[in-house]
Amino acid sequence: MSVQMQRRLFTVQEYHLMSEAGVFDKNERVELIEGEIIQMAAIGKRHAARVDRLARLFSQISESLVIFRVQNPICLNDKSEPQPDIALVQPRADFYEESLPNSQDILLLVEVADSTVNYDRDVKVPNYARSGIQEVWLWDLEVNCLEVYRNPTANGYTLMQKFERGEIVSPLAFPEFEVSVDLILS
Question: From CA 150, how far away is CA 133, in angstroms rounded?
């Protein structure tokens, strides 16, 4: 007789209780994705430089229009609390101290990926779509391009465009704000 093994998935509340109880080392980088606690890859120099370039660029958007967060958690549902590299979120007076940004608050998510590109593309991006995140940018440092995902559905994004060197892209929420692919990938 064969027994099917089932994984024990965690809720966001349980994940927070584990953190408060000291289950994770204070310097350990983990995130909750679809109920599973995932150890995040170390941030290399190349990845960090691209995130810093994006942070400098997005910081030019007026703070009256957006709060921009770097590698901070967001709450997608009761089973997912990822930490995207960049999140542009609706302004809020408490800066999300009372509760994390959720899909209704998020204007744009950005993931920068080198060694984790397949995981980001195959697991995180579909999770963002199921949660209703309107737009996700995936900077693929392995092939030096930007993948832009729009029009979320329960089955993923219905629109994905690739941008390469020499091209310009603008976020849906800020169509007048132009981002040069060259500036980020150089």
Answer: 8
Check: CATH 3.90.1570.10 for 42-185?
yes
pLDDT tens per residue across span 110-166: 999 988 999 999 999 999 999 999 999 999 999 999 999 999 999 999 999 999 999
* Whole-number Å distance between alpha carbons of 120 and 126: 9
- Domain-wise residue ranges, the chain: 42-185
Instruction: Report how many helices (DSSP H) and strands (DSSP E) the chain contains, helices first.
Output: 5, 10
CA pair distance 57, 72, nearest whole angstrom: 18
* Spatial distance between the Cα atoms of 116 and 98, rounded to a whole number of angstroms: 31
Other CB atoms within 10 Å distance of the CB of residue 59: 11
Q: How many CA atoms lie within 13 A of 19 on its CB side?
A: 16
Query: The tokens of 70 are what?
Result: 């770097």
What CA–CA distance (Å, rounded) separates 63 from 35? 33
Cβ atoms of 106 and 137 within 8 Å: the answer is no
Enumerate the β-bridge partners of residue 113. 140
